[in-house]
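Why do we care about 3D structure at all? Because function follows from shape, and shape follows, mostly, from sequence. That is the central idea of this module. The next example makes it concrete: a single protein chain, its amino acid sequence, and then its structure expressed as tokens.
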Amino acid sequence: MPPPTYLGIDVGTSSVKAVAVSADGVVLASADSPQSVSVPAPGWAEQNPEDWWQATIAAVTATVNQLESPSQIRAIGLSGQMHSLVALDRSQQVVRPAILWNDVRTTEQCEFIFDRVGPEMLMEVAGNPPLEGFTATKLLWLKQHEPENFARIAGAMLAKDYIRFRMTGELATEPSDAAGTLLFDIRRLGWSTEICSKIGIDPWILPPVVRSSEVAGQITVESATLLHVPEGTPVVGGGADNACAAAGSGVVAPRTMLVTIGTSGAVVAPTAEPSADPGMRIHSMNHAEQNTWYLMGVVLSAGAALAWWRSTLADSGDSPGFDEIVTAASDVQPGSDGLTFLPYLTGERTPHGDANARGVFAGMNAAHTQAHMTRAVLEGVAFAMRDSVELMRPLGAVPDSAVAVGGGARSDTWRQILADALGLPLKTVGPAEGAPLGAAMLAAVGAGAFGSVTEAGAAWLTTDGQTDPDTEKASAYDDAYHRYTSLYPALADWFEAGQQQ
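And the structure:
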């Protein structure tokens, strides 16, 4: 008989990825289907939810075709991009293209929410500041700018929840994704009718909330035919992409941490209780594991900063590869001989929340080389990560070690810089499937194969390696980090003035 198998699906921005995992944690098959983003106006970002569904069909079908039999699939879990708004009308049809997490048209609505709700309630109830990416701001933008579409809304959903709706016909969400809307009470685990009332959103348009590992519906006859999976297969609540990435890396319990260097970067630290930053510089979210929360800091340009720097070198006539420029940077001393880079190429989220911030090289002299500048880029991203870690420590997130994932974590040099700058051992784990693996774990828990996400991670994950911090370099990195943190306050007014011109 084919082994019991659990399917995890991640509805990402650039692709939908599916992974099939056996009960003992072996990745049996995987596939992805790419997607594009529409930019109707500067700062806007939209996708058609129907494209998500077609990409899901393609990725799942390709994955299932690699298995011995579709019948071995016991349950399905979903992960997805956070914040992105899907609006449904009374006939459960999509009202307009989804407004995505990286859409920044809603600055005016952020100010409205801050004024109406106030910092104390935002911190204590929602756990987050009003930023352009969050779902509530998008609803208010529609109310102001597309009142006819807003009047048609009978249901407001998130990306992965729309896919589950297409699979099962059931409307639902779960805490880890709901926490990214600004409309959810992260302590009481339900929609905040008080916040909704203050900003003029009808809470009845929001879906029921289930647990991340709770079965929220079964595959219908129609979707079974399209996806080539058995009719009646249970589909669990799933989780937000960051929550599932953490689960899929074994970062579920307090004193652990996830450090992600992809195009953007993130630091995720689980906590046993919700813990909000009084300055609202750090996000506080519900985890995919029951009775667990996490603090999160976001770096908008992480791997993107190195990609920009390499592209700049190519434009100047040089065409080095990533490995080549990073290897050259490894010969430069920690601190880049006084050269500092701010990786704020598209603004910054944590800790400044400043869309006007921009990238800066500071402290250049005639002795600095291309290798110095490359190392400064690598260190600048590491220091941006350290900003989040430093804010998390007073809130009770004091990790013994961290798990490093993403493209940047595959570089020995960059991983060592991160370990040294953060002062933490950095582990790498396998299988390195990230968010879709976390979604498959939730499916396995929902099907009864494990009692918790923690138990699933202990059974499925192995530590591939560990990079320890070099204590002899700690002083050099502390000095370099001090230079780094002194730059933004000195330049903040200049950033703002530059964007107003």
